[in-house]
Amino acid sequence: MDLNFTPEELAFREEVRTFLKSKLPDDIRAKIKGGKRLVKDDYFRWHKALSEQGWLGSNWPTEYGGPGWDPVRKHIFEEECYAYGAPRILPFGVNMVAPVIMKFGNQAQKDYYLPRILDLTDWWCQGYSEPGSGSDLASLRTSAVREGDHYIINGQKTWTTLGQHADMIFCLVRTNPDAAKPQEGISFILVDMNTPGVTVRPIILLEGEHEVNEVWFDNVKVPAENLVGEENKGWTYAKYLLTHERTGIANVGSSKAALLHLKAIARDQVKNGRPLIEDPLFRNRIAKVEIDLMAHEMTNLRVLAEVQSGGAPGLESSILKIRGTEIRQEITDLARRAIGPYAMPFQSEALDEGFNGEPVGPDYAAPIAQQYFNMRKLSIYGGSNEIQKNIIAKAGLGL
Amino acid sequence: MDLNFTPEELAFREEVRTFLKSKLPDDIRAKIKGGKRLVKDDYFRWHKALSEQGWLGSNWPTEYGGPGWDPVRKHIFEEECYAYGAPRILPFGVNMVAPVIMKFGNQAQKDYYLPRILDLTDWWCQGYSEPGSGSDLASLRTSAVREGDHYIINGQKTWTTLGQHADMIFCLVRTNPDAAKPQEGISFILVDMNTPGVTVRPIILLEGEHEVNEVWFDNVKVPAENLVGEENKGWTYAKYLLTHERTGIANVGSSKAALLHLKAIARDQVKNGRPLIEDPLFRNRIAKVEIDLMAHEMTNLRVLAEVQSGGAPGLESSILKIRGTEIRQEITDLARRAIGPYAMPFQSEALDEGFNGEPVGPDYAAPIAQQYFNMRKLSIYGGSNEIQKNIIAKAGLGL
Amino acid sequence: MDFSLSEEQRMLKDTVERLVRETYDFEKRQKIAASEEGFSRDVWGQLAELGMLGVPFAEEFGGLGSGGVDLMILGEAMGRGLVVEPYLSTVVLGGGLIDLLGSAEQKESLLNAVVGGETLLAFAHGEPDSRYEPAHVRCKAEKTGGGWTLTGRKSVVLNGAAADQLIVSARISGGHDDEDGIGLFLVGKDAANLKVHGTPGIDGTHVAEIALDGVEVGADAVLGTPGACFAAIEEVMARAIVMLAGEAVGAMEVAVETTVEYLKTRKQFGKALSQFQVLQHRAVDMRISLEQAKSLAVLAAARLGEPRAVREMAISAAKAGIGQHARIVGELAIQLHGGIGMTWEVPVAHYAKRLVMIDHLFGDTDHHLERFAALSDAAA
Amino acid sequence: MDFSLSEEQRMLKDTVERLVRETYDFEKRQKIAASEEGFSRDVWGQLAELGMLGVPFAEEFGGLGSGGVDLMILGEAMGRGLVVEPYLSTVVLGGGLIDLLGSAEQKESLLNAVVGGETLLAFAHGEPDSRYEPAHVRCKAEKTGGGWTLTGRKSVVLNGAAADQLIVSARISGGHDDEDGIGLFLVGKDAANLKVHGTPGIDGTHVAEIALDGVEVGADAVLGTPGACFAAIEEVMARAIVMLAGEAVGAMEVAVETTVEYLKTRKQFGKALSQFQVLQHRAVDMRISLEQAKSLAVLAAARLGEPRAVREMAISAAKAGIGQHARIVGELAIQLHGGIGMTWEVPVAHYAKRLVMIDHLFGDTDHHLERFAALSDAAA
Lengths: 399, 399, 380, 380
Hints:
heterotetramer, A: alpha+beta, Butyryl-CoA Dehydrogenase, subunit A, domain 2, Butyryl-CoA Dehydrogenase, subunit A, domain 3, 4-stranded mixed beta sheet, 4-stranded antiparallel beta sheet, 46% helix, globular, C: alpha+beta, Butyryl-Coa Dehydrogenase, subunit A, domain 1, 3 domains, acyl-CoA dehydrogenase activity (chains C, D)
């Protein structure tokens, strides 16, 4: 047993650091460090840099243009990106629809879509959840009816993250409303967002940001060739996708970066005449979450090692989801407490690039309360933490 | 609204204090303060003192020899008893079987049993739980079969607190095994512990003490006149009893005394060269539980006031059970932490009166870890805290 | 011991509850919160008309003179409606200081104007580095001629931009954490060298940053005895905390009711969410927190008229305890609503935000736990 | 990065697991724990025979020389069986100190006797007021003639009454909290003016209070350089914590397994307890705590051979984290078993007791959180 990186792994880390220093635009990095709002172009430039380096498809096999990293390298890559201040890699194309196309798509789909994902021609979003089916995804009702060589889609998707920027959406649709079980009549289909009848409507989250959307389908005509795999087998593909989505769910890199930021804030804030970080209570809370994060990182690495040696994560991936989100939420909660009264002012415009109004409070204060409220989503989405516990109870403990 | 005691209430408090100073034997008080083991005679002498004062049946109406106190006086009485160092009043006779006899017993039963409870002729214990029916009490299986003017009882009761000292046991028994619902075939019957076929076997709790027992019934012949109320209506009486038991469930007085004891320990223990009570972390925890207890006491008083003005406590009594036990457990947990390494030595004999062996650690240390483990029972018995939450969800919130 | 409300208090409760119910539906509240001023002149006028703005004062100013319980009642009703009107700043803090320290003339002119709804006040007290320490005042007051010159910065001042008059705390003498040496000064909103920068708060309330760059005021702007104002500051904060405790309870009630209702309505896996035991128990946890918060609010309200040592222990207990319970209720309300609880359009999200943010006013849980421990030691 | 066990480690694991499984069933464990000595000479002999008592030492003493992971493996197996044998005291602490500080002769005579199972050691270090502070030593060592005289009290010494030799820490110089100035001395159990008072521990282990009332020892009783022993004390404590972390994980595994099994078996209201979602989720909470504890044990074990700063951060993280997780698992194991979990006769109650009491050894959660924060600051 050896927790130290090998010389090769250390060299790889250096390579990642060098890449970040030279290829991540400074203005984007400054936005991330300052908790500022990203615009589409920010994401685009960062993804482009990754694409040009051949690192965008970090989970992809080399045959499709991936770098062929092992789990430890993926871990290093993720951690270094967050530590340096890179935006997250949007998963919808590269880590969600791509694995499904690789596994279940036909050759034409692979040839057409995968390169367009890697070179950023297509910007994807996700069409899974519906207003009536959140945790109970299989109850979805958006319908796709075959008419000749097309499907006609009607219905509504929701919680579509950054759908306002997307060119394409992958959807779960009901192709057989009469199937015996709700899981059985579902298909997986790819839809061009510019097709007539597709409408995107913003959902403003409680903290005031436009991050997610509703996507409405009103007699949207989609070529039958956009069906992935077999009709009515979409549930299998959906579950496969969810497993893939789960791999990055531990949030280790982002939590580590957030913890460092929290410590910086706590060093700057003053309580009882001393830096807040020296306050015994606050210090204790930071230590507690830091230890939780160390334990969580080790769990993540143990799972990755298991995967590397051919095992499949079982209840561990649900544990990673739960602990990862709890820890991330705890850090934002501490940040909110750390800034004291300055959590109150809500300077939305201060989060825009080029804001040159009067700042309120210390420069790190503006996004903190918003982030705290925004992060409440972590324990809700991606299968709520209650659902994860159900999964562990049933599949993991046999209860 | 006025939270201060009236002059009459203050005078009553003085009366209670005077009584305690003059009538609670010093050796018993010393045992309570020192966390020592009580023997039957200790309970007897304390109950006798109360009986002579006319205060044993503190919840009893005056017609049966009770003092006729209002809820605030009961609260003051309880609090003063705990604060001074009196043992708890054993509820089995005076607060459990007595209210049932008063409400559902016949005149002969009232005339015979109630005076014997008040003058301590009969020492009662409880025969409710069975090995197979804890929280699900209605599934009990101890049977009582009518034969002439007797019932023949067979079966087993468990968790019978201080059954080793008891003269009488009140039991729930199944008189109709064929009833449509499990609740319907149950009767409430009084059994002399000296009847042939009754066997008491100790259960040693995890911390090593003999507090509860199993009571076995092997063809125990009980006169039919010992049946309370109607045959097969025992479930109604049982529920009535449980409501009565619930009134003292808030544990306010005992938690207040325990909190004072905890603070005394924390003043004596040293951490980082200063009294533990000045340690910011520990101090914070004490403050937290002290505030929780203040809130809880107010809830209790609000419920009492509601009862006094004719209301019936609903979900509040379950809240009192949950919070009361959580707070009491938290205090014992803090006491365990407070004594540090000295939680480990297990000097059972040091808890006996007249122990003059070598003490290990400070004099307050010996019972602390035992108490912590013993107090785990609080969230299990009297309807586990999970069951209480079910009750609140269903009856209180309509879920 | 008596937990009942007086006849006047029951009437007060009915009046304010009706006003909130009838004039402050969620949609309107959102509009008011999003407005430039951050409150409604119209609602404020109605509050004045109904005599609500004089409640904490002596009878000659239209008050009930009965103290904490009234404030709790007002708070609870306003919490139920997520009311953002400047009651705390104008009536409780500003009016309270004038009530405690003002000269007969100041009371006559200002209190009557407050009670009549004509004048808005704000208490400019917190500073960029004061965190939650009420004695921390660096803003300087220097005697110049017949008056005073004020220099310094004030932070997160409730309704600071809407106020006609600010009551500014400033240091006359002593170190910047000393209780002694603090003075209070009335500053009109149009004073020279005064800069008020208002922003919305994340919970729909409004706050301001204030810069005093040599603001000159006359001798008649002095409130109380310069240098000896801390006791009054502490006392109005205690009143504010009582009202805020009531507000938290009101908001928690709605959050619990709304969540329970949602669980009964919303279906997943073919069952109402209310069928899932884990969700039931979480709703119960919310309900238990509400009950504890209520008890603490009652405690603080009833103790407000007691001597300082007793009063402040109850105040810190309430603020610390309610901080924790409000967070539990706020976070669970979102969690149990799932995705929908994350959206701007549903009321419960805004209740949750207010519940969390109440902990950031007048000292958070940690501040009051520490303070409670010190007060408890002193009382032992 | 590599999480796999070496061939030797896998063999070690198999050996110790088989030994515990085959010789240490619950009934036997209870008898051993209740015995006067508090361990089994028979089992100890088997451990010696299988080479288990030399594991942490160099190869010449029968060890594997591979450090923390071995200790974790041993701890985990012993935790599964709630083993009360004096491994920590004799091998890890006592043997460890001799290994780190002993002269060639001391190692030759004592380590071999330890490894062979002939000699039992105990580390008499804690004192009545030292709480969890490892540098707090008031017991005095004074140079007298060719040897030393020891005076003071030692508290809660693991297996102190069974030990043939005590290793006593005593102060040569410095203040009573100084790391510098601590010496270590071998004291035979029959030494004059030595009083050892053994008691059972609440978790079935055995501890002792020790009074040294002018105990004289010769120059050959000195271990290491008097006054410069703290680094070694810290290091053997780190080893002990690694083993204890393993033990906690082993005991937690059994507690989780037993509880899950009980939920499946026990019926209430006509359903198995495992049908109740709330109880399911609590079992899941136990399982999650177990996973975190495992990760922390692995971390501490793997970092044991690193330089002090890295090692101790992992050690304090593990002890603090495991203290919390072990308590969660212990308390929930009792709660989910209901009344039956409260009784002496069921194994799970004793697992719960051990899990809680592990927090009282070598520094509790609070101690290590504070220490971790300081180490983390220093590392930043």
